[in-house]
Amino acid sequence: MTALNDLADRYVDESAVLDPCLASAMGVAGQERRLTDFGPRAAWERAELARRTLKVVADTPVSGDAERVAAAVLGERLATEVALADADAYGTLLDTLDGPVQRVRQAVGLLDQGRDTVWDALLARLRAVPGALTSLYEGLEAARRGGRVAPYRQVVRNARDCLDMRPYLAGLPAGHGDGVLRGALDRAAATANEALTRFAGYLTEELAPDAPETDALGEDRYRLGVREFLGSRLDLRDTYAWGWDELGRIQREMTATAARIAPGEPVPAVLAALDRDPRHQIRGAAAFRDWLQALADGAIADLDGTHFTIPGPLRRIDCRIALSDGPAVYLAPSEDLSRPGTIWWTRTDPDGPVPTWTVPGTMFHEGVPGHHLQLGTTTLNTTTLNRFQRLSCELHPGHCEGWGLYAERLMEELGHFTDPAHRLGLLATGQLLRAARVVLDIGLHLRLRIPAGTGFHEGERWMPSLARAFLTEHCGLGPPGFVAFEIDRYLGRPGQALAYKLGEKVWLESREAARRRDGADFDLKRFHEHALNLGPMGLDLLRAELTRTDRAG
499, 517, 540 — which closes off a domain? Predict the structure, then answer.
């Protein structure tokens, strides 16, 4: 145990006490009976912990490459936390993807392990829901007294999320525990749902009337978001132009791929036909879950021992179905491996048909060689990574989501998209949407003009209504609920939507730089092993480490 690793371990433990919801998402054990205090005092304590620890990192001696990297990763993250706190970036507390309401839902859901559920921990966490919502109310009211309220879009979306959470909580006790515990679970779920109803009423009836309609946060706040989610400093206007170029390239590839499926038909017609094609449909949640599991298991069998070495604990992914309209998500195994790596695939209709032609790319992104391999490898690497590095994937979306998108591209390179329908799915959901996110995320928050030659409202400045039309018409995306969620997501978490495409860009460019550096000695499997063993980090640091000229072979 070195001084730096000891410091990193203490920070993980102290941070987990102050933020149990984040600790659950990171897989940190020990806080399962609690939820986060979202009040002003607790927020100040979290910021002070980051300030104190950052000062100690600067004074802690390091030796060797592993410690040098570890210090850089921890220091960069803490400095970003301090910058966010100094700007009161999250004083209004609400967003639509990973805000307090969503973290409470996730923290409860992570304890829901069927027959393996620790029921007294779940009971304690259910009982903590009203208190967490009260603290969130206190935080929002403190911000409102200071003249700051989240945009209307985020307020009403969070109210809806509160109401949507209630059926799930009400159903948790069903069939679980003995008679005494079942009654306690029922009462705790009912009390939690009453609190959710009251809080949703507060949002819609009290906070929403004061909420501004303007969503764009401007360049200064947006740059903080880029720093938070990417660990990078960008030329935003050059990146915006690159996003348009990448979008055009992908659309041309989609046209060529669609022609292989239905020559002469326009791309939207081909996409619609694939959605209706019974050869690319599965009906029923149970059958769809089994198909997902087989797809995940097959990818592991194909890649293990050839292009990757997959450790035993990672050779199984738990595939689950969640009833919601959000994106599919992956959660890494907990640090003690008591919780397996899990993919949650969302559905709104448990019995209806599911189009499957878009699914393989997403499964490779979320499973193997994507997040499951990446984050599972990190979790298991106790040799060269300290505890903070092993558990900080949630804090480095550029690294994490960039690898996920790179994994999709890698599987295409390795020949796993021979079916043109699956390749079109890769382009439509894995590539086109992520490129559109670069354009829309920067364009919406900076209110940039749409450039000439795009064929879409040229010269106008981006607004949410234009963004919805762009995703629906220009990118062929739907249904309307998904499109609305996307727009709310961009506007609620500035910079996060860039993580996928710009992260992939760094992974691809770094791989090619390493290939040029190593020449005939370049080995793809060895490159991936080195890259994954570095652990999560910001993109600027990742590029520097993967392309170091003093490392060859």
Answer: 499
Residues 180 and 322 in one domain: no
pLDDT tens-digit map of 5-26:
999 999 999 999 999 999 998 8
In a domain, 416, yes or no: yes
Q: Is the peptide bond before 369 cis (omega within 30 degrees of 0)?
A: yes
pLDDT digits (tens, 9 = 90+) for 489-548: 999 999 999 999 999 999 999 999 999 999 999 999 999 999 999 999 999 999 999 999
Co-location of 93 and 210 in the same domain: yes
- Same domain assignment for residues 186 and 300: no
Can you spell out the DSSP letters for 41-98? HHHHHHHHHHHHHHHHHHHS---HHHHHHHHHHHHHHHHHHHHHHHTTTTTT---SSS
Q: Which residue is it, tokens 């690319």?
A: 280
What is the per-residue DSSP string for 256-307?
HHHHHHSTT--HHHHHHHHHH-GGGEEESHHHHHHHHHHHHHHHHHHHBTTT
How far, in Å, CA of 22 to CA of 157, rounded? Answer: 21
Q: Is 459 left (phi over 0), alpha (psi -120 to 50) or beta?
A: left
Residue that is last in its domain, among 171, 188, 215: 215
Q: Dump the DSSP string for 460-480.
A: PBP-HHHHHHIIIIIS----H
Residues 179 and 281 in one domain: no
287 and 138 both lie in a single domain: no
Whole-number Cα distances in Å, 531 to 5, 86, 375: 20, 33, 12
State how many domains the chain has.
2
Using alpha carbons, select from 97, 27, 117 the residue that is nearest to residue 380: 27
Q: Are residues 94 and 160 in the same domain?
A: yes
The model's pTM: 0.90
Q: What is the pLDDT of residue 553?
A: 47
Structure-block tokens of residue 139 = 């935080």
CA distance 439 to 247: 9
Dist. CA 348–CA 211, nearest whole Å: 29
Q: List the chain residues with pLDDT less than 70.
A: 1, 175-179, 325-326, 478, 551-553
Same domain, 329 and 277: yes
Helices (H) and strands (E) in the chain, counts: 23, 5
How many C-alpha atoms does 456 have within 13 Å on its Cβ side? 23
Counting Cβ atoms within 10 Å, is residue 181 exposed (0-12), middle (13-18) or buried (19+)? Answer: middle
Residues in the chain: 553
- Structural domain range at position 233: 226-499
